[in-house]
Amino acid sequence: MEDVKKETQQEESRQTGNQPEENKDEKKSYVERKRWLFFGLPFTFTKYTVTDEVITVNDGLLNTRENDCYLYKVQDVELQVSLAERIFGLGTVACYTGDNTHPQLFLTHIKNAREIKNYILKASEEARRRRRTLNTLNIDAEDIDEIDAD
User: Fold this and answer.
1) Residues with Cβ within 8 Å of residue 101, at least 6 apart in sequence
2) Taking a C-beta distance cutoff of 8 angstroms, is the pair 93, 50 a contact?
3) The whole model's pTM is what?
4) What order do you get walking across the sheet with 65-70 strand by strand?
5) Could you tell me the residue ranges of all domains in the chain?
6) How far apart are CA 120 and CA 114, in angstroms?
7) Helix, strand, or coil here: 49?
8) ∠132-115-98 over CA atoms, to 5°?
9) Which of 12, 60, 85, 108 could pair with 64 as two cysteines, CB 3.0-4.6 Å apart?
């Protein structure tokens, strides 16, 4: 009987998105909803899902849009917390990516923002290692040829 209660509680916590989900492979995933800044209520139609492979943003009620960004493309992660967000226990995670559709991906007004930011940072580094991908910056090296010619 206690096992059934524990499974029910785990299923409820997965649906509410308050805790990370753990699969049989012990991989974490976070499901959070964008919330109103006023009281932090989840009355919006935007859902963020972060797994060890991809960040997915589902948006809309009638016209829905789903956008994915692979974690290996995430170059930097930033936590932004305004005073109002701090009062209601929310935060915004800004992901700077090499993705064409969303070079700046914002997970806006979510709970557990610091934990999710740290997870994305570590998981993106691990995803780059698994894919053996090198993350480089464009420092406008085209101008060097013109300088050397002079």
Assistant:
1) 67, 69
2) no
3) 0.68
4) 21-22, 28-33, 46-50, 54-59, 65-70
5) 28-133
6) 10
7) strand
8) 40
9) 60
User: Which architecture characterizes domain 28-133 according to CATH?
Assistant: Roll (2.30)
Angle at Cα 11 formed by Cα 123 and Cα 18, nearest 5°? 50
Structure tokens at 102: 């969303």
Both tokens of 63, joined, read 């016209």
Are 78 and 93 a contacting pair, CB within 8 Å? yes
User: Order of strands, edge to edge, in the sheet holding 91-97?
Assistant: 74-80, 91-97, 104-110
Task: Name residues whose C-beta falls within 8 Å of residue 102's C-beta, 6 or more positions apart in sequence.
Answer: 57, 67, 69
46-75: burial string, b at 16+ Cβ within 10 Å, e else: bbbbbbbebbbbeeeeeeeeeeebbbbbbb
Amino acid sitting at position 33: R
Q: How far apart are CA 39 and CA 19, in angstroms?
A: 20
- Decide: helix, strand or coil at residue 107: strand
Helix, strand or coil, per DSSP, at residue 131: helix
